[in-house]
Specification:
Layout (H helix, E strand, L loop, with lengths): L1 H7 L1 H26 L6 H18 L22 H7 L13 H31 L3 H14 L3 H4 L4 H18 L1
Helix pairs in contact: 1-2, 2-3, 2-5, 3-5, 5-6, 6-8
């Protein structure tokens, strides 16, 4: 079923994955909060989605298309990413405070690995590659904006408006940098 959808339309394939990812992660977060253990439901959902996506890419030999292979780029060109690493780690500069139990912290960390893989594959993999055929500039913009707008779901889950607005703007910017 996944392969048929992918072969029919890479764009619709990416849109379906975006919807499935956002909806299931949101449901997982809400159920985890109801249970009282952060990410206890979300983590298994994210692991299952990651495994499905990984094996889909593997089975269809799409490693090279989506960048899951050794890069041919000279490592000295990776210095470009140093400012990005500095921005990403800024929250850790003044220390770390655990707001959750150790188990919840482990669930959060493992969830973030899955989220990173899923979001890179969905937004900067499937969506970008599907749109790249019609123009790289529009593919970059749509991929970045879609990634940012995907964070609107946090408002539906009870997040405050202003922090969520800043999160959306940050996500669009980071999505642009990553793509």
């Amino acid at each position: 079923m996944l392969k048929k959808l992918y072969e029919k339309s890479e764009l619709w394939f990416s849109i379906v994955w975006i919807i499935v990812y956002v909806v299931l992660a949101s449901i997982g977060d809400n159920l985890s909060m109801m249970i009282g253990i952060e990410k206890v439901v979300t983590l298994p959902i994210l692991i299952i989605l990651s495994i499905i996506l990984f094996f889909f890419i593997r089975k269809n030999k799409l490693y090279n298309k989506y960048g899951l292979c050794k890069s041919n780029v000279n490592y000295s060109k990776m210095l470009f990413y140093i400012p990005l690493v500095i921005l990403i780690t800024a929250n850790l500069w003044y220390g770390v405070a655990l707001n959750f139990t150790y188990l919840e912290t482990i669930f959060y960390i493992l969830s973030m690995f899955c989220v990173g893989f899923l979001e890179e594959m969905i937004f900067r993999g499937f969506l970008f590659k599907a749109m790249e055929q019609n123009g790289v500039k529009s593919a970059i913009i749509v991929s970045s904006v879609t990634f940012g707008i995907g964070h609107i779901v946090n408002l539906l889950n009870g997040a405050d408006f202003v922090p969520t607005l800043f999160q959306i703007i940050s996500a669009i910017s980071i999505g642009y940098l990553f793509v």
